Amino acid sequence: PVDQDIAYGFIFIRFEQGLPTVREMMSPYADELASFELEKLIPNGRVTLRPRPVNWKNVGDNYSDGMHIPVAHPGLSRLFAGTYRIEAKQWIDKMWGHITETPSNNWSECAYQKLLDGFTEIPKERRRLWAYYKLWPNVALDIYPDQVDFMQFIPISATETTIREVAYVHPNASREMLRFFRTVS
User: pTM of this prediction?
Assistant: First the structure.
């Protein structure tokens, strides 16, 4: 058996010929995704399973529509300061926003904002960018300057979904960054 503390591999299966590969689904954003160097990331903890009493299609729709952001994520709304955008392609949705340079009144958000400029190994244009990609029908990547969250919305029944997720970080991620990220998100 594979030691789950060391690595997490994911297998994507196409049940019908002619459906696109993951690479093909993500192709509209291939250039920008390449700059994130996803292949260099390592797991940050274990895969977690979060049961939700809702249909998996609602989870996916909620993820892509952005309407829940002001209600469910007030910190995110403050940090984005009106820059949140949504774009839909055939097999992939992209949502993104830029973290404002105006210091937040919330101490942990303000500390996170200050840490972003310390990421000198990341291109300047990405240091304040949070980008979200949802591959049809049920896979999502949340890409932050300091980590990437991988999620899969697994249907259990018509009224129950399990969200399977794990975070990945750069091998040189600092404790300070990880601590503040968990507080803000």
Answer: 0.84
